[in-house]
Amino acid sequence: TRSWNAPTIPISNGPQGDCVTGTVVRVGNLHKHFRSGGETVAVFDGLDLMLESGASLALMGRSGSGKSTLLNVLSGLENWDQGDLQLFGESMSVGDARRWSDLRRQRIATVFQEANLMPAMTLIENVQLRAGLAGRSEIDAQGWLQRLGVGDLANRYPDQVSGGQRQRAALAMAFAMQPELLLADEPTGSLDSHTADDVADVLFEFQREQGCPMILATHDPRLAERCDRIFRLGGEA
Ligand code: ADP
Ligand code: MG
């Protein structure tokens, strides 16, 4: 039997010892365009970005400024036209499907808007699965759900909870895999302001205690201000 439910206390676990030091993300001179209809839309035209170990970065910018596209590029889900991308000190290119999927399984947690839960599994099974795929078998899935305020919904299926509750379960999945980089797209976007504050508290506790670097795309200035740095896309924002 698998022992996914070892009684560890999440958050206060302390550093797991596998956090990389130095620069986690380095983007240099990134160019990216989309073609829609007959038109070419340049989303990035020479973007430079760095994320140091243990740091948090907020991506801000109006709708359509490229926040989601950048997170997709950083997780290997979207290609780019030109520029250098290094993750954990290694150069990445679009064709490295195997390396990208290894990174996403084990080292990079992505919490995107269409919360990526498996519909045929309960919330707690989703957390267990996610952590198990990342090789973290000794996790307290119930504890993570509890910490995110959805512990009493652990045995429900994703379609039996609200969008905001799915979002919180998705964050529990991300934390339980103990990633070395967390990428989150509007992690509090579907939450009321009180719940958003609670979830932000958990996010920053996690970041502080695990030393996990993170990039958060957000419209919420209160969330952005809690990050070490704010990076604005698309000129004004
Ligand atoms: P944000 O997340 O900041 O709202 P996005 O990254 O979603 O912005 O979009 C950036 C720009 O790229 C927008 O102009 C959007 O219309 C365009 N875009 C995004 N995805 C696609 C796509 N798959 N095909 C064509 N255009 C796209
Ligand atoms: Mg977006």
From TrEMBL:
UniProt keyword Transport present: yes
GO-annotated cellular components: plasma membrane
Protein name (Swiss-Prot/TrEMBL): ABC transporter ATP-binding protein
ABC transporter domain location: 25-237
Keyword Isomerase tagged: no
InterPro entries in the record: AAA+_ATPase, ABC_transporter-like_ATP-bd, ABC_transporter-like_CS, ABC_transpr_LolD-like, MacB-like_ATP-bd, P-loop_NTPase
GO molecular function: ATP binding; ATP hydrolysis activity; transmembrane transporter activity
UniProt keywords, alphabetically: ATP-binding, Nucleotide-binding, Transport
SMART domains reported for this sequence: AAA
Lineage of source species: Bacteria, Pseudomonadati, Pseudomonadota, Gammaproteobacteria, Pseudomonadales
Domain of life of the organism encoding this protein: Bacteria
